[in-house]
Specification:
Order of helices and strands: HHHHHEHHHEEHH
Strand order of the largest sheet: 1-3-2
Largest sheet: 3 strands, mixed
Oligomer: single chain
Distance between the termini: 55 Å
Structural class: mainly alpha
Radius of gyration: 26 Å
Length: 248
């Protein structure tokens, strides 16, 4: 009788352990999916012209709460079964390492929407024409769209210095926004996630022009405005790379 009671107790403990282990595994896998699929990509917002920043913030809060739900389940189950926690944790980590850049697999429409959300653009604007070019073609577009700048460099610094500046820009060129045509050109010769980050950079320039975004500087001259716009665009590019390209 006593042995039977012990056997029944061990069986119940085994069943509870198995149940907790299954729940823990599902929770970790669910969290892994949410981790590798950013909130904005998993729950896209097709915002109407009347959307407000408060409404956008409420949607972000809801998504973050959904992301936090598995953590609550994890804390409950980890305390009850360390062995299954270890196994499920290793599975989850392996999935994150195997698919670290799944969240970065975005199309231009998604990146356009992401940049608009980051800049808190509430109006609806058409997406510009986006072309992915090889290096020589991209350099040709840059030369054609910067003829005036080339002439100004030559006037200010002389022919030799103007050529040096042009060659420097052509060497480092990976993306370009043409304010005249409002087209975006991205190099097709860089690695995929960097290409997306550069696209986010150039789309920031697009919104700067479309929205006529101006920054309060100390001097208020065109050179200072150009510098501040570049800083905003580089900040957007860096934010994209940290969020979608780098393993956290």
């Amino acid at each position: 009788m006593f042995l039977a009671a012990i056997s029944d107790k061990q069986e119940r403990m085994r069943r509870q352990s198995s149940q907790h282990g299954c729940c823990l595994t599902i929770s970790l896998l669910f969290y892994t999916i949410l981790y590798t699929s950013p909130a904005k990509a998993a729950f896209p917002r097709n915002r109407s012209p009347g959307s407000t920043p408060d409404q956008i913030g409420a949607k972000r809060s809801f998504t973050m709460c959904l992301r936090g739900l598995p953590i609550v389940i994890l804390r409950i189950n980890v305390k009850k079964n360390y062995k299954n926690a270890t196994i499920a944790g290793l599975i989850s980590i392996c999935l994150i390492l195997v698919f670290p850049l799944t969240s970065a697999a975005k199309n231009p429409e998604q990146i356009f929407q992401w940049v608009a959300d980051e800049l808190e653009v509430t109006e609806v604007h058409p997406m510009p024409k986006i072309a992915f070019l090889e290096k020589s073609a991209l350099q040709s577009v840059f030369k054609a769209s910067n003829k005036h700048s080339r002439q100004q460099w030559q006037k200010d610094y002389g022919e030799y210095k103007a050529n040096q500046l042009m060659q420097m820009y052509l060497k480092e060129l990976v993306g370009l926004f043409d304010p005249q045509s409002r087209n975006v050109y991205i190099g097709n010769f860089i690695e995929p996630c960097r290409k997306e980050a550069v696209l986010a950079h150039e789309l920031t320039h697009y919104f700067q022009v479309v929205l006529d975004r101006r920054f309060g500087g100390y001097f208020g001259d065109p050179g200072e405005q150009h510098y501040l716009r570049e800083m905003e665009a580089y900040g957007m590019e860096k934010r994209y790379r940290r969020r979608f390209c780098e393993i956290q």
